[in-house]
Amino acid sequence: MKIQYLYFEDCPSHEQGLARLKKVLEEESVNQEIEIIEVLSEEQARELNFIGSPTILVNGRDIDPEGPAGQSSALACRVYRLPEGRFSPLPSESMIRKALHR
Predict the structure, then answer these.
(1) Rounded (10°) angle between helices 14-27 and 93-101
(2) What residue ranges define each of the domains in the chain, with the CATH number in brackets?
(3) pTM higher than the cut 0.70
């Protein structure tokens, strides 16, 4: 399993997002290294198809399969739609778990 954590430094939620990812990995007994990638430029964002911070990829797939469709790459903060319909700057723990079990 390959896990990547992409972030933009100016986005205030990136540290909390990484902590949430690590927490879920520990709870799920997934002993896998996280490749942490700081996105530094618009060009790099385009190359990585980075649609906002934080972005978590499991085996190259975004953990939010409905989120990134049609969104363009940008150095920006990301918004996740939670199951109950509200928006959050972070993915839910359940969203991360589902991606790990796909």
Answers:
(1) 50
(2) 3-101 (3.40.30)
(3) yes
